[in-house]
């Protein structure tokens, strides 16, 4: 009887482990796919403020995130004022891959004016016209973006 009970307990624990793993994987793989889509636009997409032209790959920051997420079945409205309300709030210390990260135009302001996609390891990908290069990977922990970080949202 003890062997049977131990066997049943083991089977139950294995079932729970497999079920939990199966549910955790899609979110992680979807996040990686979103990041891969964003990275695939490096050297291909062009920045133009106030523009969303997916056919020609011309975006502003929020139409870039809108386009990338739409490729994976996630509908985001165009504009940081709408995207900052999407999904759920995330603390900076709890960021996960594919979270939206929001920034102000200066370190002395909390008004959101820019959005990007967190890619892990303290970095994010975004579109902005700087020195002729449009899609960038930047640090959240150093440089100008560290001082301009405002908030984050989880949409997965």
From TrEMBL:
Q: Which UniProt keywords apply?
A: Hydrolase, Protease, Signal, Thiol protease
Source superkingdom? Bacteria
Q: Which InterPro entries match?
A: NLP_P60_dom, Papain-like_cys_pep_sf, Peptidase_C40
Metal-binding keyword on record = no
**Signal peptide (residue range):** 1-24
> Record keywords: Protease included?
yes
Q: Which family does it belong to?
A: Belongs to the peptidase C40 family.
Protein name as annotated: NlpC/P60 domain-containing protein
This protein's species is: Insulibacter thermoxylanivorax
Q: Show the taxonomic lineage.
A: Bacteria, Bacillati, Bacillota, Bacilli, Bacillales
